[in-house]
Design a protein that fits this description.
The protein is 40% helix and 14% strand. By secondary structure, it is an alpha/beta fold. The protein has one domain: Alpha-Beta Barrel (TIM Barrel), CATH 3.20.20.70. 45% of the residues are buried. The chain binds iron/sulfur cluster. The site of iron/sulfur cluster has 8 residues, from loops.
Length: 325
């Protein structure tokens, strides 16, 4: 353990083998690991927790075959499908974020590529939203051209989410309609335009522990401002509806969150989808590692209300963070 503490202040020297040791730590040592990780979290993030809400601005009808996704072309999941939400819905959610002093308003759009008209229309939405509500905006919006990225930057988008989801070697097991390298080059282009990056993954896709370590090392190379760690919620109608998630114990999930903090000590580490399912009863412990969570559900799955999420943070002895745009 003391070796981990020493290493955690020199993140460059963490090897894959040492990262794997952390995932394999016996559960009885988890309290010690959490204490060590908390000292890192406290150093870089204090005691604050950012709370975000998510608007699904475009839903369903995606051409891609991501196995976990209810919006994929191969999914029969019973979800609402629409091209673009009315502006009033975005504005309503923007005010919800602002009036509850939440840290960010995240906006997800299904699909992998957008034509220029679609980008221009969405950029107008963002411009108007930024004029009315003083909130950080983060978008999840597939692959962009350089020009489209610049349009969204000029419109006021602060951060873009583009996840790697899993390791390079496991990627073709969950998606074959685009490549891992396309994801990485899209992220590099977004960084060149000056966007903050949110880049994380999903646990429970059938990956091995080595895949988790490999994914986190790929993410570390990207050095994103924010790292969302999702735990799969198998949705009826998706290819992973019957995924084996029996190994996702609270202890295992917490070790993954700890490893993310140790490898990316300065980034926001977000416990995203699945916290309500897999950490039940032990959710407060996640704050030893994470400084960011969602409230009010996910793209196609429900979640904890804003009020209950704020209570969870404050009852755990943490403060929720307000970031003005
Ligand atoms: S994750 Fe994104 S790209 Fe993949 S199927 Fe879902 S909406 Fe499409």
């Amino acid at each position: 353990m003391s070796k981990i503490l020493q290493k955690s202040f020199e993140t460059e020297s963490f090897s894959r083998e040492e990262a794997m040791e952390i995932l394999n730590i016996p559960d009885e040592y988890l309290p010690q690991l959490l204490d060590i990780v908390y000292s890192i979290r406290k150093k870089y993030k204090g005691n604050s927790v950012g709370i975000q809400i998510l608007t699904n601005a475009r839903s369903g009808n995606c051409s891609q075959n991501c196995a976990y996704c209810a919006q994929s072309r191969d999914s029969d999941a019973d979800i609402n499908k629409y091209r673009l939400v009315p502006y009033e819905k975005l504005l309503h959610d923007g005010y919800t974020a602002h009036d509850n002093n939440l840290s960010r308003h995240c906006i997800g759009l299904s699909g992998i590529r957008f034509n220029d008209n679609e980008i221009n229309r969405f950029a107008e939405y963002v411009k108007n939203l930024k004029k009315e509500v003083d909130t950080h905006i983060c978008c999840s919006i597939g692959f962009l051209t350089l020009q489209q990225a610049q349009i969204l930057k000029d419109a006021g988008v602060n951060r873009i989410n583009h996840n790697l989801n899993t390791s390079r070697s496991f990627y073709t097991s969950i998606c074959t309609t685009h490549t891992y390298d396309e994801r990485i080059s899209n992220i590099k282009m977004l960084q060149s335009v000056g966007f903050e990056i949110c880049c994380g993954g999903i646990i429970g896709l059938g990956e091995s522990r080595t895949d988790i370590v490999d994914m986190l090392f790929e993410i570390r190379d990207i050095n994103p401002q924010s790292v969302p760690i999702n735990f799969l919620i198998p949705l009826k109608g998706t290819a992973l509806a019957d995924a084996d998630i029996s190994h996702l114990s609270p202890e295992y999930c917490l070790k993954i969150l700890c490893l993310a903090r140790l490898l990316l000590p300065k980034s926001d580490i977000r416990c995203a989808a699945g916290r309500e399912v897999y950490l039940k009863g032990k959710e407060k412990l996640m704050f030893y590692a994470v400084d960011s969570i969602f409230a009010s559900g996910y793209l196609t799955a429900g979640g904890q209300s804003i009020e209950d999420t704020i209570r969870l943070v404050t009852d755990a002895g943490f403060e929720y963070r307000i970031e003005s745009a």
